[in-house]
Model the fold of this input.
Amino acid sequence: MAPGLLGLYARRLLAAAATRGRLAARVRWESSSARAVIAPSTVVGKRAPEPTMRWQEDPDPEDENLYEKNPDSHGYDKDPVVDLWNMRVVFFFGFSIVLVLGSTFVAYLPDYRMQEWARREAERLVKYREANGLPIMESNCFDPSKIQLPVDD
Done:
């Protein structure tokens, strides 16, 4: 009964898609357990013939396997000697130059946004103020006696 209902619902779905102007997909389902085949019914109508494609062989030969000729190939060249030297050059510049010298360069970059300088300057001012008996911080950033205010009219 289940394969019959499944076939009936599939036919209804394809018929509904055809009547609404939508293209019905050319689908054929086969059930492995019930051996039921659900194919598009004739209700859908006549379809346009499928476009035919002609098969053409690739004129280029297949890529040759470099590992058959050189099992130690690194993929840089067909010649084993050139391949080995290219691998050595790539790894030398990739690791020695980029990683070692690059990390050394980053480690010795100058003080970013002068954060280290600001800390050293603050410590120097604190030591100076403690040695001279001045308060470490004042409420006035500038000396009020040196500020000239405009005269009131």
Summary: The two ends are 106 Å apart (CA to CA). Residues 80-107 form the longest helix (28 residues). The CA atoms of residues 126 and 132 lie 10 Å apart.
